[in-house]
Amino acid sequence: MYFSYIELTLFNVILKVAGIFFIKDALTFLLQLFAAVIYLKPENSFSAKIDYFNLISTFFIFLACVAIIYLLIFKTEFIIDLLGLDKKFGKEIIDLNIHRSIVLSISIMVVGGLILVNEIPNFINQINFYFLDRNILGKGAASKRSYLILSGSKIFVGGLLITYQNQIVNFIELRRKRKKE
After folding, report:
1. pTM of the model as a whole
2. Mean pLDDT in runs of 10 for the chain (181 residues)?
3. Pair 175, 140: CB distance under 8 Å
């Protein structure tokens, strides 16, 4: 079967970029999982059962996100074959001289930038709410502290994505090269 290199590369890049977008959601669920473990109540009450249900459901959502990320980033050919993306388009070859690693690098920087752009105002808002609750309620503003930590963690992850985008792209490309060998 004849496949256009650019066509498959385009779909590979699109799916990998979608997988990189899912990393942000998986990290959010991971942080929620840690928060659920920290605030888990040991007693056998109704609220403890709800906490356990939240912990288990967040864990399964996190596992589903990890599976989707793995499929989108490392098994793109399988998804292309499964969805038949290569059969729905013509065989016109468009000559683009952009290497896949450059597109992945740009997409990782864009995702990191979007995380920062979304979370910095949220972080400032959470700081404001934290200090308002602390002044009103006293030192018992632990619930606002968890939102502040979650928002700060997202900013940290966004900064890491921008800072270490070359290493992330090298990891993705290394997995692809190992698969070919």
Report:
1. 0.56
2. 48 80 78 74 69 79 87 84 70 63 83 86 82 66 72 89 89 76 63
3. no
